[in-house]
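hi! just following up on the protien thing from before. the input was this:
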Amino acid sequence: MAGYTVGVLLLVIVFGLVYFGAAHRVLDRLYLSDRAALALIIAMIVGSFINIPLTSGRVVTSINIGGGLIPLGLAIYILYRAGTGREVGRALLGAVITAAVLFGISLVTRGREAWYVTGLNLLDPLYYYPLIAGIVAYLVGRSRRAAFVSAILGVLLLDVTDLYYYLSRGIRGTVAFGGAGIIDVTFMAAVVAVLLAELIGEVRERAQGGPVAADRPRSLLSGLRGASLKPLPDDKKGNGGEQGE
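and the predicted 3d structure came back as:
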């Protein structure tokens, strides 16, 4: 019940930040408008009550619309819009590493075979999974977009590893992709990753006196520094790099 309350509180905070325009900069990085973000949050709330059965039998699987399908669709959209192949690669690598770290921690904290057979749980994953996933996703992804995508895909990949474990060992079990109630670890991890990227990115920019101008498109820098931006050298024009990370 406590985890449920924490999740709802986080959702309310994010909704408020978006509604009052305080998250505009982050949303720009994710190619989302305020209205689109609010619509997605509402859709996740409604969709969190809807589970789509996938398989039955020894291993029962399902996917939650609000905690699984919508975040997955958003991650794919951001990857599609990503500026460079390098950023896409970092996001996918971050997802794999995030899943691996979470899986390793789950074996330690939940008790290897005992967890898969009896569901033994020493610590509630809702408390530490989002934090760990967010930190790992940021450290690997670095940019707002890559960190956000890494966190979402990393948590979903963790469910895939659980499914593989059940099937390979012939163990009965249930795997619910993104199905942890009104707000899932997937969304919470993505929020933590983006907040870290935004906070650390803001500190770095202030420490260096503003955003790095090298290899950045003029349109982006004009939005960051205003119309007084000096022209870029000819050999830098057209070299956008990873725009608006």
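Confidence is low (pLDDT under 50) at residues 112-122, 219-244.
DSSP finds ten helices and three strands in the chain.
cheers
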